[in-house]
Amino acid sequence: MSNVSDRSSDVERTVDAYIENMLLLLENPHYAHAFETHFTNQSLDKDIWTFPAAVLFTTTTIIPVGYGNVCPSSELGKLLLIIYGIIGIPLALVTMADTGKFLSRFVTIWFEDSMAWPTGLFLSLLCLYPIIGGLLFHHFADLEFRDAIYFSFTSIFTIGFGDLMPSINVIYLVLFIVFGVILVTITIDFVAAEVIDRIHYMGRHVGKAREIAGKMMQLAQSLNMNRGITGLTAGMNQLQALARFGLLGKLDREVLEQKQDGFAFAPFLEDMDFMDNASAYTQDDKSPRMRQPARHLFV
């Protein structure tokens, strides 16, 4: 009985050690993929380092998506991968960025330097691209539609978890990834340019408004200096005339830009009589300098 019990305990320890080793092997994605390939092919050994797999590996390394279904296991392979990534990733990113700039410049010229239409167009394409890719992967590969969209999104945004891999031709998959990454680059370029342009536009107008307000305050202070209540009234009248005259100038510019006929010309400044001609000086002070209308303040 003791021999039987010892033998059963040895079998249990052997099985536990085997299961532990199998679980440790499955932690390595390379070994896990090899085990999955061996299991799904009726225990037939299949080399995972095929030429299409190598092309996909090199492409997803420099883009970089990095699915992780195929990876180097030897020390020499890891060292060569580091060198290849250091050289290839910057070259690939620069190439895709230049391609995106070329296409964005062409689209901008096509839309006559308008940024709103290209931005909306590429945002729409970026939203439709994963859906179209999901439909294709769902139709030609063994993926559910939800998983296919998930795979498309993680691929074109270079996330690449590697938990899903459609059984599709590697050439089509590489082209899908390359065009998707270029589309993401162009869209981000247009959106960033539009946002920066809006921020600069708001900043310029805030700066102009601050400058105009400062000048108007200085003008009011110079008008009100040593004039009391009457000077205050004159200063307010001058500011109203200045604002009204600025609006007239703006309307005149808009009419000239639209090139519409039938509009009267704006009157000359010399022919306009300001509201404060009579209030620019007091009744007590009749000096020649104070008798001048406030019009000279704007010359």
TrEMBL record:
Secretion signal, residue range per the UniProt entry: none
Membrane-spanning intervals of the chain: 48-67, 79-97, 117-136, 148-165, 171-192
Region (Disordered): 280-299
Keywords for this protein: Ion channel, Ion transport, Membrane, Transmembrane, Transmembrane helix, Transport
GO MF: outward rectifier potassium channel activity; potassium ion leak channel activity
InterPro entries named among the record's database cross-references: 2pore_dom_K_chnl, K_chnl_dom
Entry keyword annotation includes Transmembrane helix: yes
Family affiliation: Belongs to the two pore domain potassium channel (TC 1.A.1.8) family.
Name of the protein in its database record: Ion channel
